Amino acid sequence: MAYGNGSQEFVWGSELEGHGVMSTFDTIVGISIWMLASLAVVIGIINLCVIKKLTIFHNSFGAFWVSRTIGELGSNIVHVVYSAPTTVFQPKNIPPTFGITIFMIGYFFAAESCIMHQFVSANRMLAVCAPLKYNSMFNRKVTRNCIIFAWTAVSILMSLYILIPCQIIGYSPKYYEYVYIRCDGSDQDSSFIGSIINRGCTAMCTVSLINDCVTFGRIIQIKLTRSKDAQDEHFRRNVRFFAQTAVQNVTMMGTLAIISIVNNRNSGQTGWNIAAFESVILTHVNNGLALILFNPEVRRLFIGKTKSENSTAVEQIAVDQTTIGMVPDDNVQ
C-alpha cells in the first residue's frame, strides 16, 4: 500500500512522486532514457523525411510506416520532455495528474504504433504471397480505413483506464516505469485493463510472427521455383521490406515479454522496470533504423544521390515490373 511522509495515512498517487533527493543511479537512468528517446525522435523525423522524399514509399506500406512512426515520435517526445527529467531530478511533490497525463499520452502513441506494425506486417505478407491481389486489398480507401481504425481503437482502449475504477497508471520517476496507482483499501497491485492491453499487444505480435513465417516460406518457394522472378528488383525490394519488418517483430516480442512480466506493478525489481521501459524506446530506435539499413535507396539518399537519379531508378523498376507481368505497389495519392 502506498503511503506518504512516512505515516500510515494513505496518499493516492504517491507512487508517482520522486525520491525527493537526486542520486547517481537516478541520474544515469534518467540520462539514458533521455538519450535513447532523443535518438528515437531524431530517427523518426528522418524516417518521415525519407518517406516523403522517395517515391518507392508512396504506397500503403509507406502510409502505414508514417502512421506508426508518428506513434513512436509521440511516445518518445513525452520521455524527452517529462520522463527523463523527472527521473534525473526526482521531485517529491509531483501532482499525480502529471504522471497520469504523461502515461495517457505516451502509451496512447506507443499502442498506436504497436497496432500499426501489425498492418505493416500483413502488408508485406500480401505483397510477397499474393502480389496480384495487393492493389485491390491495399488500395487508398483500405489504407486510410486501417489507419483510422488504429487511432480510433487506441482512443477507446485508453479511455478505459479512466472510465473503469481503479485502473489508472502513471509514470513514476522513482520506479523508472509506468506503474499502477493503488486505490485506498484495495490490495490490487496492477491494472487489469493494462494487463489486457499488454497481453493483447503480445498476441498481435505473435500473429505477426506467424505472418512472417508464411512470408518467409513463400520467399523460399519463389527463389527455388521461379529464379527469374526472384531476381526481379520489385521482388527483391519486397523481400527487403519484409526483412526489416521481421527483425522488428522479433525485438518487439522480446520487449512485450518483459512488459508482460512487469505488468506496471510498483513492487517489481528495479532492473525489470528499467528493462521494460527502455526496451520500448530501443524497439522504436530499431524500427527507425531498419528503414535506413535495409534499403539501398535510402542509403543512396544519405550519400548524395540526386532526386533525378532516384526517380530514374524507380522508373526502371516500373519497367521491369511491366516486363515480367508483376503488379507494383499502389500509389496512395
Automatic annotation (TrEMBL):
Keyword Transcription set for record: no
TM annotation in the entry: 31-51, 63-82, 94-115, 146-164
Pfam families: 7TM_GPCR_Srx
SUPFAM superfamilies hit by this protein: Family A G protein-coupled receptor-like
Keywords: Membrane, Transmembrane, Transmembrane helix
Domain 7TM GPCR serpentine receptor class x (Srx): 39-295
Keyword 4Fe-4S found: no
Name used for this protein in its record: 7TM GPCR serpentine receptor class x (Srx) domain-containing protein
The species this protein was found in: Steinernema hermaphroditum
